[in-house]
Design brief:
313 residues, mainly alpha, 11 helices, globular
Length: 313
């Protein structure tokens, strides 16, 4: 998996952050452990790559150092671009913990961010002490770093527009705060959707212009992406596999309308929130029509050939 796919994942998480924060997200057993393990394993691989360069530097092997820069340029790009997903997940994790009054996400996501930033700092120092590197390569890698940091601030601001304190996870807090203020001014749902689409396309095009076509750690990137997706529960998605809207997710919470759904004997089927609201209205209409004073009423509806038993308590 190329690093550009991790960039796309980071943009998707930020774009759907309102839905993620509105969903009743519950961590699956071992999900956070897998994220911590896969992220630390990839960071260890980055440190080993620097150690190989230091070995060449220690013996003053000019040819070896030049070969190292040619072979490990994709690794340096992975370090800089991978920071976008790490920052977004740290921001999202803290926002989720604050929303649900818990401490399940932020301890791990912030720890991984700190370790990632340490590795990124080592590679930035490597660019300054660039023995064996060509000027063109250094300029290109610096462009990757600057664009990744700027777009990271845009993504962090997309999550932090309701809580400016979350801008501390950006590379430039002041710049992220300005982006968040701009997002608050354009809080209309139609404007947000349009800006989100343009943001995703702009990030992808901007990063693809400066990064290479290959990666040295595809399996490590794939493992990180898989672990991040494992953090998101199935309740985040609708019946078509798309990320549900924030209003849709709020309606999916178990206390909607005081209605309890009991599968009928003919079989079970997932009921969407709008079906639940329709059932509430139909239950109330039937109650008025029959003028039954009992505290419990059961109404059976047939929708699409399937029977559903609704009980109003």
């Amino acid at each position: 998996m190329h690093t550009i796919h991790l960039v796309q994942l980071a943009a998707a998480l930020a774009r759907h952050s309102d839905s993620i924060l509105a969903s009743p997200v519950s961590l699956q057993p071992g999900a956070m452990t897998r994220y911590w393990t896969t992220s630390r394993s990839r960071i260890d691989l980055w440190h080993r790559a620097i150690a190989r360069f230091q070995d060449q530097l220690r013996v003053n092997d000019a040819v070896g150092m030049r070969r190292w820069w040619i072979e490990h340029r994709p690794v340096i790009e992975d370090v800089f671009l991978g920071g976008m997903l790490t920052r977004v997940l740290a921001t999202l994790g803290t926002a989720l913990d604050q929303t649900h009054d818990q401490a399940e996400w932020s301890p791990v996501t912030e720890s991984i961010l700190g370790t990632h930033l340490e590795a990124s700092s080592r590679y930035q120092q490597l660019l300054l002490n660039s023995r064996g590197a060509r000027v063109n390569d250094l300029q290109r890698l610096n462009q990757v770093r600057r664009r990744s940091e700027r777009w990271s601030d845009v993504l962090v601001a997309r999550i932090a527009w309701r809580d400016p304190s979350l801008c501390r996870f950006a590379s430039d807090r002041e710049r992220a705060s300005l982006f968040a203020q701009e997002h608050r001014r354009d809080s209309d749902s139609t404007a947000i959707k349009t800006k989100d689409r343009l943001m995703s396309l702009s990030i992808e095009n901007s990063i693809m212009m400066v990064c290479g076509e290959t990666t040295l750690l595809p399996e490590a990137n794939r493992a990180v992406a898989s672990s991040v997706m494992g953090l998101l529960g199935h309740c985040l998605f609708d019946s078509y596999g798309d990320v549900a809207s924030p209003d849709h997710l709020r309606l999916k919470k178990p206390d909607v309308g005081g209605i309890q759904w009991v599968p009928s004997a003919e079989g079970s089927k997932t009921i969407e929130p709008w079906d639940e609201l329709d059932s509430v209205a139909m239950t109330e209409d039937n109650a008025k029509a029959t003028e039954d004073n009992s505290s419990e009423k059961e109404i059976t509806q047939f929708h699409g050939g399937h029977g559903f038993s609704w009980t109003r308590w």
